[in-house]
């Protein structure tokens, strides 16, 4: 067989991810290893699969036609793998769910729990992931579906927004700004702040909001997880701008949230891969997530 399974796997990863670098990340191997396999595949098949232009790989017409056949093989292999897993675990189905940390407690309580009670023979495996990690989980088939605090922009992902909400100000209980119904960004900027790192989505959103109003702010602490921001606010370290779910579901008795006068929108979404044929169990679970109560308070 000239076109071996490993070559198909690498070829598919490059087609889905769009580059050698991203394919290497998906398959957890080095970039040179991916390049060697791609070159060997082209040589053994006698086909040019990619054209190189300004550092980018552009699939040839032959690659696009070959990819259609590889997807057929991959889908069959995925079904066989899932069937074997179900036999080993004596289950009727397994769902791998990747989810933004700030949504996990609420979705577990309002969707996963009632779903597993209704379908006790289906196992839901939950993986908490940062936004930047979700595409790789889906495109590498590590997860069947993701629930993300923001839509994921990717040509090979489908994002379905299930609700629209906004970021809020988290304050220590008793803070003077708790007295108002809303909080102005200018008032927040005058206070010590717990900030998300700017390379994170929340950090970018907050930075852009301050920039739009030409405000500077003082960060007394930088965090990568909203739970850490809530813990610091709970301890009275400063204020934070966070999603509307984390403080309510995280058990922070001394954190109060207030709407911000400037809307910083969030659009929680259900995300799936264009290349994943979802099983009946996953389709049913998606309906539970889309129809659940998305109000922030428990």
UniProtKB/TrEMBL annotation:
Keywords: Activator, DNA-binding, Transcription, Transcription regulation. One of its GO terms (biological process) is positive regulation of gene expression. InterPro entries: LysR_HTH_N, LysR_subst-bd, WH-like_DNA-bd_sf, WH_DNA-bd_sf. One of its GO terms (molecular function) is DNA-binding transcription factor activity. It holds the Pfam family LysR_substrate. The keyword DNA-binding applies. Residues 3-60 form the HTH lysR-type domain. Belongs to the LysR transcriptional regulatory family. This is LysR family transcriptional regulator. It comes from Rhizobium lusitanum.
């Amino acid at each position: 067989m000239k076109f071996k399974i490993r070559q198909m796997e690498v070829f598919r990863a490059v087609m889905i991810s769009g580059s050698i670098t991203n394919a290497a990340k998906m398959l957890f191997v080095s970039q040179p290893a991916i390049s060697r396999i791609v070159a060997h595949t082209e040589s053994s098949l006698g086909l040019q699969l990619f054209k190189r232009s300004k550092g980018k790989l552009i699939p040839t017409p032959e690659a696009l036609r070959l990819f259609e056949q590889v997807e057929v093989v991959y889908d069959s292999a995925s079904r066989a793998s899932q069937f074997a897993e179900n036999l080993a675990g004596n289950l009727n189905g397994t769902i791998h769910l990747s989810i933004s940390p700030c949504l996990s407690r609420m979705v577990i309580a309002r969707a996963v729990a009632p779903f597993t009670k209704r379908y006790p023979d289906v196992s839901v495996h939950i993986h908490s992931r940062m936004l930047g990690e979700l595409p790789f989980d889906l495109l590498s088939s590590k997860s069947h579906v993701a629930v993300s605090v923001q839509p994921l922009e990717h040509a090979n992902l489908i994002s379905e927004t299930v609700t629209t909400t906004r970021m809020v100000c988290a304050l220590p209980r008793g803070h003077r700004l708790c007295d108002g119904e809303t909080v102005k960004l200018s008032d927040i900027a005058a206070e010590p702040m717990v900030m998300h790192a700017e390379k994170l989505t929340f950090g970018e959103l907050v930075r852009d909001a301050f920039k739009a109003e030409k405000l500077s702010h003082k960060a007394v602490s930088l965090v990568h997880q909203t739970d850490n921001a809530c813990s610091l606010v709970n301890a009275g370290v400063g204020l934070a701008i966070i999603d509307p779910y984390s403080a309510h579901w995280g058990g922070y008795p001394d954190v109060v949230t207030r709407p911000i006068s400037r809307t910083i929108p969030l659009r929680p979404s259900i995300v799936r891969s264009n290349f994943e044929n979802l099983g009946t169990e996953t389709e049913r679970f998606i309906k539970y997530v889309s129809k659940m109560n998305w109000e922030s308070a428990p």
